[in-house]
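Q: what sequence does this backbone want?
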């Protein structure tokens, strides 16, 4: 688990980019970074929290920064290939983001199953 996940934040490229661009006290962000940050925050504010899927966040990242250049994947450092991040094929969501999404879905399923089990126990005990 990385630092973003420990704080309950998604560990996608958008979150990593924002986390690594926090200004130091008394030092303003440069114009390009400030413009990108404003655009990201503005677009995120237009979307309900429940609709901020990994796919939506990746699409927003690409909308703001464009497609990655050949041999480079933004926020993953040098030497990381698209295949390392996105896997083989035409997947658009990084593997770590997909894993986080699946983990969230599993938690929701467990909560629903647990809730359904409680309801069944109440019904059976009242019969």
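A:
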């Amino acid at each position: 688990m990385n630092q973003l996940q420990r704080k309950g934040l998604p560990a996608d490229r958008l979150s990593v980019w924002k986390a690594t661009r926090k200004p130091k006290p008394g030092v303003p962000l440069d114009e390009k970074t400030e413009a990108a940050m404003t655009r990201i925050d503005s677009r995120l504010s237009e979307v309900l929290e429940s609709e901020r899927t990994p796919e939506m966040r990746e699409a927003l990242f690409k909308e703001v920064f464009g497609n990655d250049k050949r041999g480079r994947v933004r926020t993953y450092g040098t030497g990381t290939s698209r295949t390392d991040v996105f896997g083989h094929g035409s997947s658009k969501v990084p593997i770590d983001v997909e894993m986080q999404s699946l983990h969230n879905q599993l938690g929701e399923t467990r909560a629903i199953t647990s809730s359904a089990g409680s309801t069944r126990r109440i019904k059976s005990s009242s019969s």
